[in-house]
Amino acid sequence: MLVNLSQEQNMIRKMVREFAESEIAPISEKLWEDQSFPYEIWKMAGELGLIGLPYDEEFGGGGGDWLSFVIVLEELARVDCAVANSIMANSSVASLLSNFGTTEQKQTYLRPILTGEKIGAIALTEPNAGSDAAAIQTTAILEGDEWVITGSKIFISNSATDVTGPVVIAAVTGKKADGRNEISNFIVPKGTPGFAYGRKLNKIGWRASDTWELFFDSCRIPKENLLGDRGAGLKQTLSTISTGRILIAAMGLGILQGSLDRSISYMKERTAFGKQLTDFQALQFKIADMATHAEAARLMIYHAAALKDAGKSFDKDASMAKLFATEKAMEAAHQAIQIHGGYGIMSEYAVSRAFGDAKVLEIVEGTSEIQRVIIARMMVK
Length: 381
Known about the structure:
Elements: H1 7-24, H2 28-34, H3 39-47, H4 66-79, H5 81-100, H6 103-115, E1 119-123, E2 139-143, E3 146-157, E4 164-175, E5 181-189, E6 195-200, E7 211-222, E8 226-227, H7 233-269, E9 271-272, E10 275-276, H8 281-309, H9 315-340, H10 350-361, H11 368-380
Parallel strand pairs: 1-4
Antiparallel strand pairs: 2-3, 3-7, 4-5, 5-8, 6-7, 9-10
Helix pairs in contact: 1-4, 4-5, 4-7, 5-6, 5-7, 7-8, 7-9, 7-10, 8-9, 9-10, 9-11
Catalytic activity: a 2,3-saturated acyl-CoA + A = a 2,3-dehydroacyl-CoA + AH2
Domain Acyl-CoA oxidase/dehydrogenase middle: 121-219
Protein name: Acyl-CoA dehydrogenase
């Protein structure tokens, strides 16, 4: 499928690239070293309309399309994947609230996370439940007009910033007739009594996107903080994951393109054995591979996003795009370091920081192995 970008989409790319280069790039190394969430960048992204771009204008969104949002994340990740992830993770919460929330929930919790006033977190993963989401052990018991939540979550992004608002958590609310867990989603605002933080986790990538352990000790929330129907939590979450995979793929493309761009620039500036690095065929081949992979990934990602915008099925395309783009991002980050030599392993160089970022992309929203399982099942069913 040929995807022709509109004039508006090309303008969005130009605007986001300029924003990322001028505002994020100069502080990216410090954000990485300090593992600090960039509040001012978040605020500016909200003012530019980047955070809520594909969501309804009625609740503070931009009313745009998903392909445009893909371009936003691609360009942000080209400079700093952690900033892109904060917006992507926030979007996962926004999708749940937008698709399943009541009007009151949307006004209270969705609007602030679309405008940049607040940031949202989604808490599904537990110490013993990652890809097997149905194995979560956190419970929610209805007592009168309140849900009482007990359990723990891990690897939760956006959950402890100064501007964190709603945390959407998944909890077991009973058993189904077949004995499987009945899972429901709940909105738990930061600061709710019984909601506490454990460790801030030290990651190899996405270091400026804060990631925490969460604990719920008889945490009480109003009955109306149930999101959608009781027992529909897993179905709700899974319905947003394919979209998340397109967005993660876009971030992979950003790393891939950034690795390519920086490698070409370095090769043009650097000489060895009396020659410019661009004259060495071994390095030329690395550039050729990166460029080819970037173009292929871009076509796959834009195609999947266009399918979503058209209201067509895109689950398989999302998994294919996520698998290909993230694995090729990892390869490109590796090759960029090889091209840069000793400089490539110094954290002051963006190619070094991109290496850890790329690895994280192969894990989140379903590992590469999970994507292969999904693709294979859809091909043979």
